[in-house]
Amino acid sequence: MDFTVSDKMQTILKMINEFVEKELFPLEKEFVKKDFHELLPLIREKQKMVREMELWAPIYPPELGGMGLSMVDHAMVSEALGRSPLGHFVFWCQAPDAGNAEILHMYGTKEQKERWLAPLVKGDIRSCFGMTEPDMPGSNPVMLGTRAVRDGSDYIINGHKWYTTAADGSQFCIVMAVTNPEAPTYAQASMIIVPTDTPGFNLVRNIPVMGHEGTDYASHGEILLQNCRVPAENLLGQEGHGFIMAQDRLGPGRIHHCMRWLGICHRSFDLMCQRANFRKITRDDQTLASRHIVQQWVAESAAEIQSARLMTLHAAWCIDQVGAAKARDEISAIKFYVAGIMQKVIDRALQVHGGLGMTDDTILAYFFRHERAARIYDGADEVHKTAMARRILKRYA
Amino acid sequence: MDFTVSDKMQTILKMINEFVEKELFPLEKEFVKKDFHELLPLIREKQKMVREMELWAPIYPPELGGMGLSMVDHAMVSEALGRSPLGHFVFWCQAPDAGNAEILHMYGTKEQKERWLAPLVKGDIRSCFGMTEPDMPGSNPVMLGTRAVRDGSDYIINGHKWYTTAADGSQFCIVMAVTNPEAPTYAQASMIIVPTDTPGFNLVRNIPVMGHEGTDYASHGEILLQNCRVPAENLLGQEGHGFIMAQDRLGPGRIHHCMRWLGICHRSFDLMCQRANFRKITRDDQTLASRHIVQQWVAESAAEIQSARLMTLHAAWCIDQVGAAKARDEISAIKFYVAGIMQKVIDRALQVHGGLGMTDDTILAYFFRHERAARIYDGADEVHKTAMARRILKRYA
Amino acid sequence: MDFTVSDKMQTILKMINEFVEKELFPLEKEFVKKDFHELLPLIREKQKMVREMELWAPIYPPELGGMGLSMVDHAMVSEALGRSPLGHFVFWCQAPDAGNAEILHMYGTKEQKERWLAPLVKGDIRSCFGMTEPDMPGSNPVMLGTRAVRDGSDYIINGHKWYTTAADGSQFCIVMAVTNPEAPTYAQASMIIVPTDTPGFNLVRNIPVMGHEGTDYASHGEILLQNCRVPAENLLGQEGHGFIMAQDRLGPGRIHHCMRWLGICHRSFDLMCQRANFRKITRDDQTLASRHIVQQWVAESAAEIQSARLMTLHAAWCIDQVGAAKARDEISAIKFYVAGIMQKVIDRALQVHGGLGMTDDTILAYFFRHERAARIYDGADEVHKTAMARRILKRYA
Amino acid sequence: MDFTVSDKMQTILKMINEFVEKELFPLEKEFVKKDFHELLPLIREKQKMVREMELWAPIYPPELGGMGLSMVDHAMVSEALGRSPLGHFVFWCQAPDAGNAEILHMYGTKEQKERWLAPLVKGDIRSCFGMTEPDMPGSNPVMLGTRAVRDGSDYIINGHKWYTTAADGSQFCIVMAVTNPEAPTYAQASMIIVPTDTPGFNLVRNIPVMGHEGTDYASHGEILLQNCRVPAENLLGQEGHGFIMAQDRLGPGRIHHCMRWLGICHRSFDLMCQRANFRKITRDDQTLASRHIVQQWVAESAAEIQSARLMTLHAAWCIDQVGAAKARDEISAIKFYVAGIMQKVIDRALQVHGGLGMTDDTILAYFFRHERAARIYDGADEVHKTAMARRILKRYA
């Protein structure tokens, strides 16, 4: 057993950490206050710097211009970027583009790669992923209402999607739709590339989430597909393989999210400790840090973050060793475990800040309201616990 | 021991509940989306209906046009109104105006009452209360940086306040300021009425709270008092009595808040149960309500709400019987206890709603982000626990 | 709404509290160390004193020599007695005898009352209640393996019971057995009085619970009924009414238990506060009471106990007003709510005692290990939550 | 980063696991029921088997006949042994002997090693460690009342100890006593070897812990040292170095305990899953395993155990890499974190067992009551959290 981080990774992480602190933390007040699209010019500048440092899209495979990191190293990069809500986007590792690129890389035809993947990894276009449906439990990817029917050399797609993250401003959407309704449950759906300017692909609204509709990348779209016609060559992979391909992006995606959450934990923890040291609460200048209850929160948070971090790195290591399919339990466990700890850590950090914590003068209030979603998306906590427990209990039968 | 609610109160509560459901619930989507001042015309209509039903300002004493309710009955009214974020405002029972009116009623001179109290209870003007300061722990009302210095027949006030709720659009502010810096700690501060158009009374900004600066009543102001000069007759009560008068509003204010939170609990609970019954999660139409974990949340929430409710009603009863000063423990306890339960209940209700819970399509996301403040304002949980425990432990010495 | 306790009850409770403190607390060290039957002579002395004070069996109806208390008053008596594990037994209000007496009083024939009830309420004999079975979920009273078959003028009973509390030394057992296996589920079982010296009624062992088998009243028996023959006139109430009669004892029994647990909470809380004040932890004589984390526990425990207490008294009041059947939700809620709070309060009190808390030098270690059962007997927490939630959710359908 | 376990260790762990399951699990019912000394003959047989398997005292350095394991490997051995309360004793790795042997090995003179260490590692004698005092906070090793005064070539020791684990039947005790009361706080105490048959070394009683005084190894002694005279050559290490030497045993001792607790977690988890699969709760044979709430417990427990395990292995690895002194935070964190998780896991397993869980028919009730001490000994949770937090907060200053 060896917990050593390689020298190379230590160097990369140091560079990223410094960049995030120096270049991105100061942008956050604007980020919280303004529409995302207003921020884009500033973000483009920072992205230019990232390219110049040769840290662009670090989690991508080398053939796509990335660093070809192992899952463990990928994880630590995601953690460093996660300390700011702008980190992943500025370094071009953001969901759902990263996952879409991976799918295109694995399953795309030469033409699909040229048209969609190449500009995507360069940062010239953005994309979205249309899976979740308002009338279906998001946690159950085999329950889909969207249908794609073959009509000559085209597919005609009808359906209703929401929580299509970053649809606003995307050039294409990978849509999950049932193509084979008579097939067995897990073989009914396919992935189809739908350019967002296709007639019948309607972005109804950016969903108002926690008080904001958002814009551009920082938004979640509700989409109506109404007789939306795309050529059959836009099928990604094989018909009926949609669910299997979705599973492929799950393992790495989970690591990605969990380590991003750990970045948020680190940031919140830092802010908590700094505030506790700074805030005077008595006339003789005792600080919040002198209070045992604050100390309990510091110690508990440190322990919980450490435990969640090791668990996620271990899950990443399992994926590196045996693949995501055999690491299902490890991957399920981190989903709910890390999300739960993040919520606790943010909550304590906010409480230590008192009234200030409720304001947008720190990033904590943003974390508090938006990261609440972590316990819901990609399968609610309860769904993962149930699935994981059933597998475990079977082994005891 | 008798938990009966009088027939009269049952009738009043029924009227309020129906009005809130029928007239206010439908306004909430606008409330969450728009600036408060845009909503004012609609709100004025509803307020007119309330006056016509003779339910205007029900918690005020009869001589101010209210119903002269006992604290227990007052509590139940606040609970009913709390189910909507618009309830208290539409029925004109909202903080901080209710507390300010009470202070003016108890301590105001005839002239002060005529000029400020009369239009306030009628709903013609609004007011704010300037106590909390950004550089001082909000939980410690004896630590104030604001100074009011006597200069001839005037006071000149300098200081920095924030979280001055509803300052935007208020006609006057009751400012807590140190007038007697040499006096013992609890006798240093006074309350002074400051018209908001006084030169030197500067509303710097509406603080951005959980993503929104808000407007008008739905805002929290940051205020700089810079050589702000008001006539000495604006002193409210006696010099040095500011802290004692602030305590007076504490007991009833606490009941008011806690029962409002219980209203939020009821609302969240209702939404949770309705959603659990409605949301199908399997192909054979099983609902979330069939899941034991959801059932656990329903049962636990019901029990917790009931326990918190009885505790708050008991504290109200104690105030009715022996006064707020002798009911300090009861009042401290509900502050943190009810706030904690509210946060849990909202969190569960949101989780049951899944992705929908994160959106502003229900009121839950608003409750989730804004009512987080309940564990902070009027003294953070930890401050109340410490104060209460010290009193208790002394009795065992 | 009125939380006043009558003068009469205040006097009774004061007498009980003083007696428990002065006469019973000192016995506890022996109680924890010795077999219960060794303690009986000492206990008999205390019971004599209770009779002389005319406080014998206070919760019984007047016609049985008790005080005929309302359920609310009964509850407060149980709370006072619960502060010591000897309280209920010394005042002769202990389970399962109190419940058995109630059943006999309500359903017994004249002969049954003369033979069993009269000596039971006088304290001349003891009894047990044979319901729970090792092979059946204790939480489901309609799943019973024990069979009673009519044979001429007798019943022949076969079955396997356990957790038959206080079987050791009992003169009779009220056995729940299926008499009508073809009847609808809730009409299959009957209650039959079985003298414990009946051939075929075999006390296999006192179950070792938390390290001790116990003796006499302080024990839980495992019983094999092997062709155990009793005359048909030992049937209690009507054939097939066993389940309904069992429900009758449920409401009051629940109040009884919950208030006993609250007595345990009060005792543990007192010990915690006393220890916190006493225990020095630094060279300059600071005590545990000066630590904020201990203060948090004190405040949280005080609030939780208060909330649980009011909830239980309210449930008792509901039983007084509308009967147990209509107060099912209130009764379900207190079962799991109060048990959970008791476990937390005991745990904190133990922690404040450090190593001492693990020893039998205080009563806390006894409470910690034995009262863990509160979350299990009479239906596990989870069972009550599920049942209660289903009733609630139905109302939202 | 590499989580691989070496082939050699996998083999050793497999052997230990099988032995523990096959030979020790069946002894546990006797262990719970009988005095430990009655069990000794049976235990000796098992120890003989362990020697024959060449697994005797595996955690000792090779020069003491052990395997010279790294701290990480040592940790995994302790985990495997911890699944049974008899594991460590049968494999001769039990506290406090293991720690005492280590101290003697590091600091003992040749004569001390011959007389005490040699028979100790062979299993011919046992020992105890006299540190904790009833009148001093156990968590503060620099507060000691015991005094050792030099008198000619002897020390005369007076003091009062308790929780001297396994004193009953020990041949010697390493006593912590103040020898240099004028020295700085951390340089006042020394360790002195006191043969237990020395006049003035009085084992007052075995402390009754959770209902049992215990005997022999399974006991905690209260000891009065009354003018207890030992030759000065019994001093272990140097005068005034007692505290530093105690720290030396801390790091490894902590790993040892935490991994033992993880063994208890694994065992409890296994029992929970087995019971959930076995226990039928409906007439159509649904089991507890089908209940979502049980599934939540299974998944949460699995995740928590995994997180605690990785954290402890990481702390062990840090000790291997940089020594215990530099791994203080890692070592503090596991103390409270693992203890807390163990308590939760045991509690859930017990709850799943229902009434059976309260009995001594499984090992869970033993774990429940005795392992509650984990949050207290070697420094209560709160003490570790405070110490750890203060170090962390300083880094942010």
From TrEMBL, chains A, B, C, D:
Residue ranges occupied by any Acyl-CoA dehydrogenase/oxidase C-terminal domain in the UniProt entry: 240-393
Keywords from the named record: FAD, Flavoprotein, Oxidoreductase
Cofactor(s) needed: FAD
UniProt record, GO biological process: fatty acid beta-oxidation using acyl-CoA dehydrogenase
Pfam family, one: Acyl-CoA_dh_N
GO molecular function, a single term: flavin adenine dinucleotide binding
The UniProt record lists the keyword Oxidoreductase: yes
Domain Acyl-CoA oxidase/dehydrogenase middle: residue ranges: 128-227
Acyl-CoA dehydrogenase/oxidase N-terminal domain mapped to chain residues: 7-124
A GO CC term attached to the entry: cytoplasm
Superkingdom assignment: Bacteria
Recorded family membership: Belongs to the acyl-CoA dehydrogenase family.
Subunit and interaction comment: Homotetramer.
PANTHER family, per database record: ACYL-COA DEHYDROGENASE FAMILY MEMBER 11, MEDIUM-CHAIN SPECIFIC ACYL-COA DEHYDROGENASE, MITOCHONDRIAL-RELATED
Name assigned to this protein: Alkylation response protein AidB-like acyl-CoA dehydrogenase
